[in-house]
Amino acid sequence: MIIGSFSVALLTALIAVPIGVLTAAALHCAVPQWLARYLKPVIELMAALPSVVIGFVGMVVVAPWLQETFNLPTGLNLLNAGLMLAFMCIPTIASISEDALRNVPVALREASLALGATRWETLCRVELRWAMGGIGTSVMLGLSRAIGETMVVLMVAGGAGILPESLFDPVRPMTAGIAAEMAEAAVGGEHYHALYAAGLLLFGITFLFNWVELGL
Description:
Blueprint: H1 2-30, H2 33-46, H3 51-69, H4 78-102, H5 106-114, H6 119-130, H7 132-148, H8 151-156, H9 174-181, H10 190-215
Helix pairs in contact: 1-4, 1-7, 2-4, 3-4, 4-7, 5-6, 7-10, 9-10
């Protein structure tokens, strides 16, 4: 379950971080201001979607598509979980990263442009560097949500307690394992204490992520 949790979180990060940061950069300097004023609230509203709704979409839409496209025995697997969690994390990363870019001092931007840098060079070499702390915070928040999410991985990850060898293998992250097995564990038994140990480990991991976030 530990490997499953980290596998899902890593895949989520590989998908969500580039898309989230690029979305923030597009809202900041590529999209017209009148359009950005409408897109930003829409992105923030997407972050409020209930996880059970996202899990339902993963079950009835994404899972059959993956199964038919890649000729798989099941579409409930690591890739499905990573895609759905990335969909949950991208709005958080994009919104906070855009706020960080907007808070870059105007003098820095104007100085870079005055020295002959293009708008793209100013974004990459000045604004993104200045806003790296805020972008890092957005990534930590997104990954903390991915690791601590229960309903989505319970619905779309497959629920198999095995070591994943490919993106198409079903997995059971710690959160899904605790939710699925706690009702069956006898109070005071080894299974019961093992699930509590998994919860304590999960708490430690999320605490570490939040501590890193505060450091940023």
